[in-house]
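Problem: given the chain below (87 residues), write out its structure.
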Amino acid sequence: MRSKCSALLRLEFPSEKEARIFWESLKPETESPATPRSHVRVEREGSLLIFSFEAKDTTALRASLNSYLSWLHLLKKVHETLEAEQR
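Solution.
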């Protein structure tokens, strides 16, 4: 995609295991974008997740960022709940 707007987001997780869980949960979202106006790639390097956002305009970029940040927040809450139940 030839992009007009882009953003790079790097998130460090407490462990490689946790980063892998989040990465595997988000991978399906990157394989079939909701709109042709933006594209997101998620890579994992150890305990680091790297999100590369590309969009045709700032509105699409903001929408993609908001979606992924919302999903990350939801995944964090689910992960915390499951961890608490295992203790």
